[in-house]
Amino acid sequence: MYSLGTALVLFSTWMLSRALDSPDTHRRMWWGGYVLSATALAYTHNVGLFSIMGQAAYCTGVLIVQWAAGYRKSRAAPILSAPSSTGFAEGEHLEGNALCDPWSRASEAPASPESADRSRVRLAAIAFVIVAVAYLPWARVLFTQTTRAQVRYWTPKISLRTVSTACAGLIAPTNSAVRRSLTSASATLFLIALIALLALTGGTGAWLLIAMTVIPAISVFAVSLVSVPVCVDRYLLYAYMFVLCGVSHLCYVYVPGTCRTLTIGVLAFASLCNHCYYWRSLKSAERPGMAGAAHYVNDGRHSDEAVVVTHPTIYFSARYYLRGIAEPLLFLPKGEIPHYMGGPAIPLSRTVDSEQLACLPCKRIWLLEAARAPDRSQSPTLASDWLAVSHTRKQFPESYFFLAPVSVTAFERQPAGQASQIAMSLFRL
Q1: pLDDT digits (tens, 9 = 90+) for 74-116
Q2: Is there a domain that residue 158 lies in?
Q3: Which of 57, 252, 295, 317 has the highest CB neighbour count under 10 A?
Q4: How does DSSP classify residue 413?
């Protein structure tokens, strides 16, 4: 959704800019393209609404400036000549066949500035109203999601630390839980300096970049303060696209032509180096995660043995990597699955509780566990009649630092008497 969303936010902003600058004959086409791309952006991710708010603010500012400029021009223009009784000013001459075609002057006369301004405002208002109406069917879902997230969500509360960490995650991403304070502070100061320099530069393009950067960021911070904490780097990704555009814009304005290409080349090369460094830090071959766990289960499992996942955060990845091998079950002793862990998308037919687990026809199951979840919830434990096969226990670390290692263990069902004897012996020890 983030790849599609970044493409749509750039495409819709370009459409908006062309709609505001194009002549009347092509303006409707550009506004139609903007409506489609902006609606698609809103449905791609909820944070796309913040970018649409930035587009609306920029459009409003441009229309106000255009109206003010036209008003000042109309007030300052002197009356050069008065029309005569024939409708033509003194000194004008009829050319061609004007008398035979009384509609020629009306068709050739340009529209007045006032009517052009009204046309721009009308088309802009219609476009944004259509986008709002098109989003209405999803508004109820948005409110429901917000209400659920207010009760329980995995993101940390907003603070200066989380804001600076999010900024650093955009500019200098690292695959580590430890992020240096100097890096976070430097990234935050860089963004503030960039926006200030764009404001000093001025111009329509600079203010467009400021609107598309500042307004979505302020919206994320405001929502985090009053409703749901959403101050994480990926929710600011749409705004960050215009930070990159701002760097290019400042290079174009302030760097001479010869050095401009070299500067852009150095920045692009540094970005590629950072990208390669990040992917090398993942060490996917050494940390296969769920992919390695699925291969391990496939090598040691018999076809009649069930695969059970103990936490919903790894259920979908288990289904993906076990496709064609086994259909995993989600062990859910009690309670409901949180919505941000995929609760609405997990059918109850694929979940088992302790009683259903005891009724499985197989004598051995393969258990996939996550040591911890993003919300710090713990995985449930099996009943005492399931005994772990110690030599099958293996752990597979994940590539990303925020994902817990996946543990694989085979469990065998013990007869009721033997299970109680084992429990008593462990109690005596």
Answers
A1: 776 654 444 544 444 444 444 444 434 444 444 444 556 667 6
A2: no
A3: 317
A4: E
What is the β-pairing status of strands 386-396 and 364-370?
Answer: unpaired
120 and 177 assigned to the same domain: no
Instruction: Report the distance separating Cα 167 and Cα 233, nearest Å.
Output: 7
Same domain, 346 and 388: yes
CA quadruple 32, 33, 36, 38: dihedral sign: negative
Residues 225, 296 within the same domain: no
Q: Are strands 329-331 and 406-413 parallel, antiparallel or unpaired?
A: unpaired
Is pLDDT above 80 for 339? Answer: no
Contacts of 310 (CB under 8 A, 6+ apart): 331, 367, 368, 369, 370, 379, 380
Check if the beta carbon of residue 333 is closer than 8 Å to that of residue 354.
yes
Closest CA to 297 of 281, 319, 279: 319
pLDDT tens for residues 159-215? 998 999 999 989 888 888 776 788 889 999 999 999 999 999 989 999 999 999 999
245 and 350 share one domain? no
Give SS3 for 158.
coil
Parent domain of 225:
166-282
Q: Going edge to edge, which strands form the sheet with 364-370?
A: 351-352, 329-331, 306-309, 364-370, 406-413, 386-396
Query: 112-160: per-residue pLDDT in tens?
Result: 666 767 888 999 999 999 999 999 999 998 998 888 788 777 788 899 9
- CB proximity list for 388: less than 8 A, separation 6 or greater: 409, 410, 411
CA atoms within 13 A on the CB side of 143: 6
Q: Are residues 213 and 249 in the same domain?
A: yes
Do both 379 and 406 map to the same domain? yes
- Within a domain: residue 81? no
User: Are residues 277 and 298 located together in one domain of the fold?
Assistant: no
pTM of the predicted structure, to 2 decimals: 0.78
Q: How many domains does the chain have?
A: 3
Q: Are residues 137 and 170 in the same domain?
A: no
